[in-house]
Design goal:
alpha+beta, Rossmann fold, two-stranded parallel sheet, 5 helices, 49% helix, elongated
Length: 120
Amino acid sequence: MRLYRTGKAAEMLGVHKVTVIRWIKQGRIKAVRIGKEYRVPEDEIKRLLKGKATSTAVIYARVSSSDQRSDLERQVEYLKEYCSARGYNVVDILTDVASGLSEKRRGLEKLFEYCCKRKG
C-alpha cells in the first residue's frame, strides 16, 4: 500500500494541502499518522478521484525549433502525468514547432476550435 504526503495527495486531488488536512480531521479521508504528519493511502486518493466527474482535457505543447524536439516530448509527458494525476481524460494532444510570435500554428488553431465548440 503506497502512502502519500498531504501535499502530494492535494496535488493529485486538485485541492490545497490545507483542504486535505481539514478533510482528514473531519473524517472524510482516512489517513495514517506518522509522527506529526499524515499520509494518505493510494486507495483513498483513487476513491476520491472516482467520485469526481470525469473532466476532459486537450494537451497543447510548443517549441520554437526542431532542435528542441526532445523538449517538446518532455512537455507532453509532463502534461500527460499532470492530467492523469488529476483524473482528466485526455482527448487530444496537440503540438507545434513554431515561433511563439506567430498565431499561424496548426495545433494552436485546433486548440481554439476545441475551446469554441465547448462554449458553443
